[in-house]
Amino acid sequence: MIIKQGLTYDDVLLVPQYSEVKSRSEVSITSALGAHKFRLPIIASPMDTVTASPMAAAMHSYGGFGVIHRYNSIDIQCDHIGCLPAETIVGAAIGTSGDYLERACALYEAGAQILCVDVAHGHHILMRSALRELRATLGDKVHIMAGNVATLEGYNDLVDWGADSVRCNIGGGSICSTRI
User: Fold this and answer.
1) Is 10 inside a domain boundary?
2) How many domains does the chain have?
3) How many Cβ atoms are within 10 Å of 174's Cβ, its own excluded?
4) 83, 105, 116, 176: which is the annotated catalytic residue?
5) In what order do the strands lie in the sheet with 114-118?
6) Helical spans, DSSP H, in 36-145
7) Which pTM was predicted?
8) Is 83 among the residues known to form the active site?
């Protein structure tokens, strides 16, 4: 295996530059995913220890959103979405194999506006197949986020395969075993 040199977040520093902004209140951090606008550009991770309905509701109340994790049955994941107020923008995670298509359709019907195809390494054949099948089945009715990728080639391929947005990079947390 050939291992290329890479950088981690500890290796990079964003150097402040001259600014004419007098106050943080002059800056908008509003962001959008398709038709969905967010006052807070933060997404709660689709991990079973992070995002279920309480975190999704809290993120929505602060202007961000959460992605309900996929590590339970389809019915339980749909229940997490169904118990949220109708105005809550919520995402739901799916995989790339097994029940992913049935899960995606059920989550969309339960009210998920964003589906997150959530795998540790998203630049592979199962992601390509899943994105194409999701688009063929759901069309443009739902925003499809996909990832994770850590290269420009991976990003470009996921977009070409049908992703509306792409989750980039590999987590730096101690639990993450995907990165080297």
Assistant:
1) no
2) 1
3) 6
4) 176
5) 43-44, 65-68, 91-94, 114-118, 143-149, 165-168
6) 53-62, 74-82, 100-110, 125-138
7) 0.87
8) no
